[in-house]
Structures are given as structure tokens and as C-alpha cells.
Recover the amino acids of this structure.
């Protein structure tokens, strides 16, 4: 499970590294350049294996771990999904907690 979490952090860092943050004089906060679907595609092709793309959905492996990336450009959203544990190894309530995690805390 630790390996899967590390893999998610690596993938997140790769994608975050591709976003350019511009300091603009007179602004209190930096503006972030939008990432395009094609830029995400290139990042995945540069760092993942076994890539299959269907529109704005990719299936791929990172260090042997199967993952998926779903992009919704109309709403400026991207999700990366990866297995973190076998269902048979979860304690009561953990499956529901993982499926719910972060959906109620999004800041949009």
C-alpha cells in the first residue's frame, strides 16, 4: 500500500511540475497557466507505460501499478485513480471512506 501512495505522489508531482506558475507584478497571487488535454497526454506518454487513450480517459501503468486519468476540460477537472489496497484486506468502513474521500472537501 505504501508503494501505491508513493506512486500517486510521484504522478501528482509530475503533473504539477508541468503547470507553469507566473508571478505577475501588482497581483497578490500568482496566476496559473491552464494545462491542455494534449499536455496531459504528453506527460503520461513521457512517464507511464501501457497507455491506452479513449477521448479524455487514459489507462496506463506507473511502475507496474495500473492507473486511470479522467479529464473534463469543460469544467477544468482532472482525476487520477489508482488501486491502493485489496478489498479483501480492508477493515469495516474503509472502502466507503476511500470512495468518499475528498469529494466533500473540494474547494469549487
Amino acid at each position: 500500500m505504501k508503494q501505491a501512495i508513493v506512486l500517486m505522489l510521484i504522478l501528482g508531482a509530475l503533473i504539477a511540475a508541468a503547470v507553469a506558475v507566473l508571478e505577475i507584478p501588482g497581483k497578490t497571487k500568482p496566476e496559473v497557466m491552464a494545462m491542455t488535454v494534449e499536455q496531459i497526454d504528453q506527460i503520461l506518454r513521457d512517464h507511464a507505460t501501457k497507455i491506452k487513450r479513449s477521448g479524455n480517459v487514459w489507462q496506463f501503468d506507473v511502475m507496474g501499478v495500473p492507473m486511470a486519468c479522467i479529464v473534463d476540460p469543460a469544467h477544468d477537472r482532472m482525476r487520477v485513480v489508482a488501486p491502493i489496497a485489496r478489498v479483501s484486506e480492508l477493515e469495516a468502513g474503509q472502502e466507503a471512506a476511500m470512495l468518499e474521500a475528498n469529494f466533500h472537501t473540494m474547494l469549487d
